[in-house]
Structure formats: structure tokens, C-alpha cells
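Please check this record.
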Amino acid sequence: MDGVLIHEEVALPGAKEFVSRLQEQDKEFLVLTNNSIYTRRDLSTRLADVGLDIPEERIWTSAVATAQFLSNQVPDASAYVIGEAGLKTALHEVGYTLTDTDPDFVVLGESRTYSFQNITQAVQLIDQGARFVATNPDATGPSPEGPIPATGSVASLLTEATGQDPYFVGKPNPVMIRSGLNRIRAHSESTAMVGDRMDTDVVAGIEAGLTTYLVLTGSTDRDELTEYAYRPNDVVESIAELVETISSG
């Protein structure tokens, strides 16, 4: 989503045309984000505000992927959650109980209000046997003032305190991609990933067997490509260059 379709609440070049072409050609698609703060309804509204008509069922967040993963692993279990509405809502929707009393899992997501009290409680619950899962490994998130600590940074703190590594569900874990493919009944060999980050989007797409496109409107610059051992199938300036690749075939 961010860096491909929008940037700082503005639609990027070609975003409207790309989404419209997908819809005109009746293509199955999902808009992905590792951000677990917002619900899919919130994100659909945010996209609509910049002129992108994308219903909430077309949005796939690390929070929703995490909830789906946990439900598949241990249905109707319980979790202590550090996170916002996006993660808590997703877990409620799969039948999870949110509790701080003997939970099956500690689930860490992104938050703008990490507190020492919550982190301390998570450390104690993991030490008592709760399994540790996190929505995504991103160490920082953007803000108008500059980078701020995100899920990956707090996960490192919890790991240092408990000796337990979390299982990260979001990108670059291909679990998030494969669960999304299952949601729209798509096959990897006929699906493409369009992303702006080499270390999450492109590598996740490659590991899931998708065709991959890197757009240069977000995090990764062209001169950074040589730093990685893997390459996307193509590199384009913006998603505008990919509109014509969507055919009725």
C-alpha cells in the first residue's frame, strides 16, 4: 500500500489507473500492508480519501494474517495483545479471547503507545509459558518527525528479556503471501507482487514463487539493488508503468 499506491496521504502516479484496470479486467487482487495498527475498514476509508476505491475485503494486513495464522494453529485460544484496534479486531474476528491471565500467546503488533507496563507484563507471560508471536519484523515506522520504534524493535527487547524469539507472520514471511493467495483462490505461478521494498515485498514474493516488480516510489532506491543477493523480475519508476501489463488474458 504505502510507497506503491500512496505516499503521505497522496495517491502516487498511476495508482488510480492501476486499480481501475484490475477492476475492469475482473482481476483478483489484495492490497498488502505490514501495518497492524488500523482495521481494514479504516484503511479502506483512508484509500477512499485519496480517490482509491478499494473495499475492505481487498485489504490484507499483517494483523489479519497473524489472526488467521493463529486460528489455523490453535483455534479459539487466548492472547495477551500489545497493539492497536487493527490487531485486536482481527483476533476477535477469528474467535480469540484477549486476556492478561494465563494466555496461550503473547501477540505483539505495532502501536503508537508502547508502555513499560505492557512490555513488562508480556515478558512475565512469555516467561510463564505463553508462546510469542509478532505481526511483522519492521524495526521502525515513519512519522512526520522521523523514524519511530515499531514492532521489530520492541520484539528485540522482549527477546533480550526472555530469551524467546517471536514468530513473525508478516512480510517477508511467505506465510502472509500464501494466506493471501488462499483468500483470493490464486496460484503463485499466475500472481505478481508489486512492492517498494526489497527486504520485505520483493523477497516475500520471490520466496512465495510470485513474479515480482519493484517500484521506485517508496523505500528502495535503484542504487541499492546491488546490495541484495536477489533481484525482482522488473524495476519500474512507478506503478503507472505497470498499468498496461494488466490484460484480459
User: Anything to note?
Assistant: Residues 154 and 184 are 32 Å apart (CA to CA). The first helix runs from residue 15 to 24.
